[in-house]
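Justification of computing resources. Each target in the renewal requires a structure prediction run like the one illustrated here; the chain below, 72 residues long, is used simply to show the kind of job we budget for.
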Amino acid sequence: MKMENVVDMRNELLNVFRELREDTIDLPVAQEVNNTAGKILNTVKVELAKAVLCGEIPVISFLGGSKKCLPK
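Resulting structure tokens:
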């Protein structure tokens, strides 16, 4: 599955959770998927923090396309 936005990520993580409950995914694989998702989200947090510090209104496609993420 190609992960292009936060909704895709959430759906993928829900699939991993389901697979864990069904015992169809190895725990180390699930842990790495979860770890990587956290790192991706942290990069988004850095983008948002930078925008706040610089007084910018970011457009972060991962959070929902071309809509501006912060009000002026």
